[in-house]
C-alpha cells in the first residue's frame, strides 16, 4: 500500500468529510457510517482541569489543559502511538493554590498517544501519552522559557462514539524545576 493510498483512505474514512442529515429530536439516526474506532480515524477535542501535586510537599496547584488530537488508523499497530496531539496547559505557580496569581507557567506541547483496549469492556479504554514542548514561566522580571517533558497513563470512559471522560496521572519534568505529578479528569468530544 502506498502512502498516497493510505492518505486517501484516511481522508475518505474521516467523519468530517461524510455528508449526513441530522436526525430530529427523539429520532434514532439511521447511518451506515462506521464509528470512529471502526473506521480507524477520529479527531478529539479535550478539556482537562486537574490538580498538580508538587513534590516534595504535595502542594496543590491548578492545572488547566485544552487541546486537540487526531487518531490515524494506519498507526493502530505502531507501538509508540496512534494519535498525535497538540495541547496548551496553564498551571498556577503562585501561593494561592487553585486561584490565579501572577506566577504561572504556560505550556504548548506536541504529543503522541497510544490508545489500547482493556479486556472484557468496550466502554473503558486505556492510553499512554508522551508530550514534549516549551513552557514559559511568568510573573518575574522577564519570561523564562524551558523545555517541558510529560508522560501520562490514563483511562477513557466512553459514553458513546462522540463523548467521554479521561482520567489520568502524569509525570512532568522541566529541567530547572523539581518533577511534579498531575492528576487530571477531563471531557473529550470526538468526531
Structure description:
With 191 residues, this protein is mostly beta strands. The chain has one domain: Porin (Beta Barrel), CATH 2.40.160.20. It contains 2 helices and 8 strands; from the N terminus they run ααββββββββ. An 8-stranded antiparallel barrel has the order 1-2-3-4-5-6-7-8. The longest helix has 11 residues. The radius of gyration is 19 Å and the shape is elongated. 24% of the residues are buried.
Kindly state the percentage of residues in helix.
under 10%
Question: How many individual helices?
Answer: 2
Query: Roughly what fraction of the amino acids lie in strands?
Result: over 45%
How would you sum up the major sheet?
Answer: 8 strands, antiparallel, barrel
Number of domains: 1
Fill in the CATH topology: Porin
What is the residue-mean pLDDT, rounded to a whole number?
76
Instruction: Name the CATH architecture.
Output: Beta Barrel
Task: Quickly give the structural class.
Answer: mainly beta
The count of strands amounts to 8
What would you report as the Rg, rounded to the nearest angstrom? 19 Å
Order of helices and strands: HHEEEEEEEE
- Assign the CATH class: Mainly Beta
From the spread of the alpha carbons, the general shape counts as elongated
Low-pLDDT sequence parts: 1-38
- Distance N to C terminus: 26 Å
What is the assembly state of the chains in this entry?
A: single chain
Largest beta sheet: strand ordering: 1-2-3-4-5-6-7-8
Amino acid at each position: 500500500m502506498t502512502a498516497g493510498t493510505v492518505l486517501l483512505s484516511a481522508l475518505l474514512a474521516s467523519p468530517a468529510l461524510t455528508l449526513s442529515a441530522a436526525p430530529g429530536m427523539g429520532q434514532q439516526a439511521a447511518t451506515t457510517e462506521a464509528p470512529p474506532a471502526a473506521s480507524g480515524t477520529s479527531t478529539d477535542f479535550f478539556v482537562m482541569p486537574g490538580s498538580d501535586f508538587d513534590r516534595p510537599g504535595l502542594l496543590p496547584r491548578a492545572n488547566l489543559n485544552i487541546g486537540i488530537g487526531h487518531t490515524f488508523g494506519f498507526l493502530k499497530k505502531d507501538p509508540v502511538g496512534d494519535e498525535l496531539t497538540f495541547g496548551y496547559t496553564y498551571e498556577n505557580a503562585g501561593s494561592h493554590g487553585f486561584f490565579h496569581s501572577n506566577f504561572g507557567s504556560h505550556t504548548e506541547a506536541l504529543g503522541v498517544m497510544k490508545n489500547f483496549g482493556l479486556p472484557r469492556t468496550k466502554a473503558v479504554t486505556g492510553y499512554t501519552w508522551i508530550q514534549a514542548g516549551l513552557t514559559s514561566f511568568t510573573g518575574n522580571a522577564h519570561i523564562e522559557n524551558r523545555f517541558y517533558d510529560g508522560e501520562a497513563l490514563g483511562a477513557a470512559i466512553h459514553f458513546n462514539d462522540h463523548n467521554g471522560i479521561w482520567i489520568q496521572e502524569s509525570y512532568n519534568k522541566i529541567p530547572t524545576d523539581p518533577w511534579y505529578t498531575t492528576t487530571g479528569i477531563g471531557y473529550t468530544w470526538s468526531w
